[in-house]
Amino acid sequence: MNTGGRSHPKRKAVAQLDSRAALLGDVTMAMREVTGLSVLYHQMMAQRLGVNSTDLQCLERVAANRDVTAGDLAKVTGLTTGSITTVIDRLERAGFVSRHRDDADRRKVFVGATPAVKRQAEPLSAPMHDAIGEVLGRCGDDQLKFLRQILQEMCEAVKKAAAQLNTMSDSPAEKRKA
Question: Could you tell me the fold of the domain covering 9-167?
Protein backbone atom coordinates (compact mmCIF):
# COMPACT_ATOMS: atom_id res chain seq x y z
CA MET A 1 0.00 0.00 0.00
CA ASN A 2 1.33 3.37 -1.00
CA THR A 3 1.10 5.93 1.81
CA GLY A 4 2.36 8.77 -0.34
CA GLY A 5 5.69 8.99 1.51
CA ARG A 6 4.04 9.28 4.89
CA SER A 7 4.90 6.80 7.61
CA HIS A 8 2.25 4.43 8.79
CA PRO A 9 0.68 5.65 12.10
CA LYS A 10 0.86 2.21 13.73
CA ARG A 11 4.54 1.78 12.85
CA LYS A 12 5.28 5.26 14.10
CA ALA A 13 3.57 4.50 17.43
CA VAL A 14 5.53 1.25 17.81
CA ALA A 15 8.77 3.06 16.98
CA GLN A 16 7.99 5.72 19.60
CA LEU A 17 7.31 3.03 22.22
CA ASP A 18 10.55 1.27 21.32
CA SER A 19 12.37 4.59 21.50
CA ARG A 20 10.86 5.37 24.92
CA ALA A 21 11.69 1.89 26.22
CA ALA A 22 15.27 2.32 25.02
CA LEU A 23 15.47 5.76 26.65
CA LEU A 24 14.09 4.45 29.95
CA GLY A 25 16.59 1.60 29.80
CA ASP A 26 19.45 4.02 29.16
CA VAL A 27 18.39 6.27 32.07
CA THR A 28 18.04 3.28 34.39
CA MET A 29 21.48 1.97 33.44
CA ALA A 30 23.06 5.41 33.90
CA MET A 31 21.46 5.69 37.35
CA ARG A 32 22.79 2.25 38.28
CA GLU A 33 26.24 3.23 37.12
CA VAL A 34 26.20 6.51 39.08
CA THR A 35 24.94 4.68 42.17
CA GLY A 36 27.57 1.96 41.85
CA LEU A 37 30.39 4.45 41.34
CA SER A 38 29.17 6.46 44.30
CA VAL A 39 29.17 3.36 46.50
CA LEU A 40 32.74 2.54 45.41
CA TYR A 41 33.86 6.13 46.06
CA HIS A 42 32.32 6.06 49.54
CA GLN A 43 33.96 2.70 50.26
CA MET A 44 37.33 4.21 49.34
CA MET A 45 36.63 7.20 51.59
CA ALA A 46 35.58 4.97 54.47
CA GLN A 47 38.71 2.87 54.10
CA ARG A 48 40.94 5.95 54.16
CA LEU A 49 39.16 7.24 57.27
CA GLY A 50 39.38 3.86 59.02
CA VAL A 51 35.62 3.37 59.30
CA ASN A 52 33.12 1.18 57.48
CA SER A 53 30.63 2.33 54.83
CA THR A 54 27.67 2.41 57.22
CA ASP A 55 29.66 4.51 59.68
CA LEU A 56 30.58 6.93 56.89
CA GLN A 57 26.94 7.30 55.80
CA CYS A 58 25.99 8.13 59.39
CA LEU A 59 28.94 10.50 59.74
CA GLU A 60 27.82 12.35 56.62
CA ARG A 61 24.33 12.74 58.12
CA VAL A 62 25.78 14.06 61.38
CA ALA A 63 28.15 16.46 59.57
CA ALA A 64 25.32 17.78 57.36
CA ASN A 65 23.14 18.62 60.37
CA ARG A 66 23.99 20.61 63.45
CA ASP A 67 22.90 18.05 66.03
CA VAL A 68 21.14 14.75 65.57
CA THR A 69 19.97 12.04 67.93
CA ALA A 70 20.45 8.30 67.60
CA GLY A 71 16.73 8.11 66.81
CA ASP A 72 17.15 10.61 63.97
CA LEU A 73 19.94 8.53 62.48
CA ALA A 74 17.97 5.32 62.90
CA LYS A 75 15.02 6.85 61.06
CA VAL A 76 17.02 8.05 58.03
CA THR A 77 19.21 4.95 57.75
CA GLY A 78 16.68 2.25 58.55
CA LEU A 79 19.02 0.81 61.19
CA THR A 80 17.86 -0.03 64.69
CA THR A 81 18.68 2.37 67.51
CA GLY A 82 20.91 -0.34 68.97
CA SER A 83 22.89 -0.57 65.74
CA ILE A 84 23.11 3.21 65.56
CA THR A 85 24.47 3.34 69.11
CA THR A 86 27.25 0.97 68.03
CA VAL A 87 27.96 3.15 64.97
CA ILE A 88 28.12 6.27 67.15
CA ASP A 89 30.44 4.48 69.59
CA ARG A 90 32.84 3.63 66.73
CA LEU A 91 32.70 7.15 65.29
CA GLU A 92 33.30 8.62 68.75
CA ARG A 93 36.33 6.35 69.31
CA ALA A 94 37.67 7.45 65.90
CA GLY A 95 37.30 11.08 67.01
CA PHE A 96 34.71 12.07 64.37
CA VAL A 97 31.69 12.68 66.62
CA SER A 98 30.94 13.65 70.19
CA ARG A 99 27.86 13.29 72.32
CA HIS A 100 26.30 16.03 74.41
CA ARG A 101 23.10 16.31 76.41
CA ASP A 102 20.28 18.68 75.60
CA ASP A 103 20.22 21.54 78.10
CA ALA A 104 16.42 21.56 78.13
CA ASP A 105 15.97 17.79 78.40
CA ARG A 106 18.92 15.98 79.99
CA ARG A 107 17.55 12.62 78.79
CA LYS A 108 18.10 13.64 75.17
CA VAL A 109 21.58 13.10 73.76
CA PHE A 110 22.76 14.81 70.61
CA VAL A 111 25.57 13.69 68.33
CA GLY A 112 27.67 16.33 66.62
CA ALA A 113 30.62 16.28 64.23
CA THR A 114 34.05 17.15 65.62
CA PRO A 115 36.67 19.32 63.86
CA ALA A 116 38.33 16.07 62.73
CA VAL A 117 35.57 15.69 60.12
CA LYS A 118 36.54 18.98 58.49
CA ARG A 119 40.25 18.11 58.64
CA GLN A 120 40.05 14.49 57.49
CA ALA A 121 36.75 13.72 55.74
CA GLU A 122 36.04 16.90 53.80
CA PRO A 123 39.25 16.77 51.73
CA LEU A 124 38.37 13.22 50.71
CA SER A 125 34.87 14.21 49.59
CA ALA A 126 36.04 17.34 47.74
CA PRO A 127 36.84 15.64 44.39
CA MET A 128 33.32 14.14 44.25
CA HIS A 129 31.66 17.42 45.27
CA ASP A 130 33.71 19.38 42.74
CA ALA A 131 32.96 16.94 39.89
CA ILE A 132 29.23 16.95 40.61
CA GLY A 133 29.24 20.73 41.05
CA GLU A 134 30.86 21.11 37.64
CA VAL A 135 28.13 19.04 35.97
CA LEU A 136 25.29 20.73 37.84
CA GLY A 137 26.80 24.15 37.17
CA ARG A 138 26.03 23.66 33.49
CA CYS A 139 22.31 23.27 34.24
CA GLY A 140 19.80 26.08 34.23
CA ASP A 141 17.56 26.79 37.21
CA ASP A 142 14.57 25.01 35.67
CA GLN A 143 16.69 21.93 34.98
CA LEU A 144 18.00 21.95 38.55
CA LYS A 145 14.48 22.28 39.96
CA PHE A 146 13.32 19.38 37.79
CA LEU A 147 16.33 17.29 38.80
CA ARG A 148 15.75 18.10 42.49
CA GLN A 149 12.14 16.95 42.19
CA ILE A 150 13.09 13.74 40.39
CA LEU A 151 15.84 12.93 42.90
CA GLN A 152 13.51 13.56 45.85
CA GLU A 153 10.92 11.25 44.29
CA MET A 154 13.63 8.65 43.59
CA CYS A 155 14.77 8.81 47.23
CA GLU A 156 11.23 8.13 48.41
CA ALA A 157 10.87 5.28 45.90
CA VAL A 158 14.15 3.71 47.06
CA LYS A 159 13.09 4.03 50.72
CA LYS A 160 9.83 2.22 49.92
CA ALA A 161 11.69 -0.48 47.99
CA ALA A 162 14.17 -0.93 50.87
CA ALA A 163 11.32 -1.23 53.36
CA GLN A 164 9.69 -3.83 51.13
CA LEU A 165 12.96 -5.74 50.78
CA ASN A 166 13.40 -5.61 54.54
CA THR A 167 10.08 -7.41 55.04
CA MET A 168 10.87 -10.23 52.61
CA SER A 169 11.60 -13.54 54.23
CA ASP A 170 13.46 -16.56 52.97
CA SER A 171 16.36 -14.66 51.44
CA PRO A 172 18.84 -16.76 49.45
CA ALA A 173 21.44 -16.26 52.21
CA GLU A 174 19.00 -17.57 54.84
CA LYS A 175 18.20 -20.57 52.65
CA ARG A 176 21.91 -21.37 52.25
CA LYS A 177 22.36 -21.32 56.04
CA ALA A 178 19.49 -23.75 56.58
Answer: Arc Repressor Mutant, subunit A (1.10.10)
